[in-house]
Structures are given as structure tokens and as C-alpha cells.
């Protein structure tokens, strides 16, 4: 019993420390100032490069979050069908801002306010079809993409 309780408490402590870590201001960084890593999703056949100042977390089937300490999730890759997208208040139902090409495929750019509970964030999503669903590379940003975000976007490719 003691072993299980101490393991549980150490897990909770690690989560709290990780969650309380202060994020970095991505707008103050240059792409050549940070270390980069590449995430590959072999099941869906895509890869994306991201700054290691962000913590990567997989969720669902094919989606990833890039956490910035306690400052939230400034970058995401979402893999969703229309039903799930509407349920999660994604780009579905919003008018495209413009046509784009991502990883050699034509798609749409959406700029909208994403609501997550009582919070909302301006979101810029680059969306293409993939295997009967949609992949969106999303950025929570008040402005156009900065140098770091632009590098992440242009790194997205199918393997």
C-alpha cells in the first residue's frame, strides 16, 4: 500500500511541476536560436519538426499537442473527421481565409476563434484531406505566424 501511494504521489508531484513550468515567449525566439527535433507518425505517414522548448504530447489517433509549460498549447496537429471537428470547435463551419498548399496537397487556411470551455484563442489552421479525414496544423496566435511557427509549418510533410 505504501509503495503504491508513494508512486501515485510522486506522479502527481511530477505532473504539477511539469504543468507549472513557465513557458517561453515564442515571439522572442529566432529559429536558429533553438534546438529542433522531428516527430514522425508512422501510422499516418507524416512528420513535423518542432522546437524542443515545447513538450510534445500525442493524443487521439494521429494528433499531437506542443505544450509550452503552463502557457498552454501554441501548436497542434489535429487529425479529425467532420463530426469530431465540429464537436471540438475546429475549423469546420468556418469560412476558409484562403487556399493553401501543405505537404504538396491543396487545402484551406482558416482563421477563427477556437473555444475550449470558457476560454477562446485566435487559431490559424492549415487543413488538408488525408485518408478520408482531415489533418490541420494549428497555431494559437494573436498575429500572423512568427519565424518559429513558419518553420514548423513548412516542415510538415508526408513520408
Tell me the number of strands: 10
Question: Percentage of helical residues?
Answer: 10-25%
Query: What portion of residues belong to β-strands?
Result: 35-45%
What is the name of the CATH class? Alpha Beta
| Strand numbers in spatial order across the main sheet | 3-4-5-9-8-7-6
**Assigned CATH architecture:** 3-Layer(aba) Sandwich
Layout of strands and helices, then pairs:
Elements: H1 2-20, E1 36-41, E2 46-51, E3 55-59, E4 63-67, E5 75-80, H2 82-87, E6 98-102, E7 105-116, E8 119-130, E9 133-140, H3 147-155, E10 157-158
Antiparallel strand pairs: 1-2, 2-10, 3-4, 4-5, 5-9, 6-7, 7-8, 8-9
Characterization of the model:
The protein is α+β, with helices and mostly antiparallel strands. The chain has one domain (24-158): 3-Layer(aba) Sandwich (Protein Transport Mog1p, Chain A). 21% of the residues lie in helices and 42% in strands. It has helices spanning 2-20, 82-87, 147-155; strands spanning 36-41, 46-51, 55-59, 63-67, 75-80, 98-102, 105-116, 119-130, 133-140, 157-158. The protein has a 7-stranded antiparallel sheet. Mean pLDDT is 86; it is low at 4-20.
Which features would summarize this protein structure in a list?
single chain, 159 residues, alpha+beta, seven-stranded antiparallel sheet, three-stranded antiparallel sheet, 42% strand
Describe, in short, the structure shown.
With 159 residues, the chain is α+β, with helices and mostly antiparallel strands. The protein contains three helices and ten strands; from the N terminus they run αβββββαββββαβ.
Amino acid at each position: 500500500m505504501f509503495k503504491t501511494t508513494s508512486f501515485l504521489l510522486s506522479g502527481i508531484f511530477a505532473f504539477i511541476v511539469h504543468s507549472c513550468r513557465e513557458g517561453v515567449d515564442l515571439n522572442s525566439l529566432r529559429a536558429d536560436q533553438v534546438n529542433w527535433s522531428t516527430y514522425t507518425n508512422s501510422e499516418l505517414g507524416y512528420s513535423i519538426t518542432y522546437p524542443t522548448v515545447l513538450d510534445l504530447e500525442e493524443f487521439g489517433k494521429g494528433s499531437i499537442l506542443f505544450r509550452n509549460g503552463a502557457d498552454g498549447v501554441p501548436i497542434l496537429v489535429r487529425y479529425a473527421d467532420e463530426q469530431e471537428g465540429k464537436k471540438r470547435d475546429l475549423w469546420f463551419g468556418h469560412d476558409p481565409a484562403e487556399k493553401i498548399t501543405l505537404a504538396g496537397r491543396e487545402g484551406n487556411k482558416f482563421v477563427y476563434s477556437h473555444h475550449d470551455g470558457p476560454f477562446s484563442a485566435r487559431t490559424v489552421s492549415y487543413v488538408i484531406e488525408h485518408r478520408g479525414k482531415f489533418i490541420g496544423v494549428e497555431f494559437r496566435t494573436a498575429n500572423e505566424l512568427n519565424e518559429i511557427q513558419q518553420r514548423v509549418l513548412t516542415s510538415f510533410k508526408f513520408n
